[in-house]
Amino acid sequence: MRVRRFTSLVRQSDEALAAAVMPMVTGTAMRRHDTSSAPPVDSDTKLPLVRFESPDQPAAEPVLSPEATVAVTRLLKERESADKLTAAGLVPIRSVLMSGPPGVGKTMTARWLARQLHLPLYTLDLASVMSSFLGRTGANVRAVLEHAQREPCVLLLDEFDAIAKRRDDDSDVGELKRLVTVILQTIDDWTPMSLLVAATNHGELLDPAVWRRFDMRMNFELPSPALISLAFQAKGVERAMADLLAKLFAGQSMSAVARVVDASRKEHVLHGVKFEQALVNAAMEASQQHGMAVKVLRSAGRDLQVLLHQAQGMPAREIADAIGVSHTTVLRSIKSNA
Ligand SMILES: Nc1ncnc2c1ncn2[C@@H]1O[C@H](COP(=O)(O)OP(=O)(O)O)[C@@H](O)[C@H]1O
Ligand SMILES: [Mg+2]
Q: Mind telling me which residue stretches traverse the membrane in this protein (predicted)?
């Protein structure tokens, strides 16, 4: 109050200073800052809270572990046969909780599911909803949840663990807690018409009672070398090279794979570097930055160089000279690459 009075006093003497101070006093400056991560919501359309993707937008198929592939296949089968199941008094899978580290394909799989089912995808980022909670946010989230149950769609609740954190936080305003209760209740009563996907990088933050609310759970893990190789191959890299690159990417996510392939394509287009060469360079750099053991870096790097030269039809002896190793080493590398 005293600050307000100060502002009005200042106004009389200095209009500009008053204008600068006023937002801090009324809190509008903070609010404006808060909303920068989530745009202010139009209370009629609810659109800014939720991202929409049409079923016609192109989407790549994720490269998944055998277990995840089985789960995706089962889910699609049930959703596509919903009428048959319903006629038999059964309910198709309505909700799925995806958990795993960042960059392994949770969002990508949700998108893929939506495309395969020819449904629109709505994505609600719960972390930003929770962190920039404003007066109407609760009502708008509710409206999104209701809308997604009126129109057949896939609704992705991303960063779902934001709910768990809020649930345990005593300092929270009552409205936020009520919203969490509403969301959990919504999962229980979810309509079979739409598919609800929740995704989290922190499954361990969710208590078992929350996990149990979902019809299906999908665990995503960091990809195995075999899977990483398949991801490279899906992006047009030859098998032998993909296998070698996979050794360099042990412990890394699929998004790291996508990043180096993208960067190498750009390097090729913009600077005329041969794609494979750019890929080897980018992969070596990425895996070095990720802390890959020097020994692995050196041997995989050598094998990759041999492979690059070999692909150009260079004989083993010349490869040895070109990359400065012995002829025997080159022969051994060629044999192991085969
Ligand atoms: N399983 C996967 N197969 C192919 N590409 C993947 C896979 N997982 C991640 N990617 C790549 O990484 C990007 C980010 O993945 P995303 O699905 O957003 O990860 P998450 O949601 O698990 O954090 C994707 O757009 C894609 O390019
Ligand atoms: Mg994601």
A: none
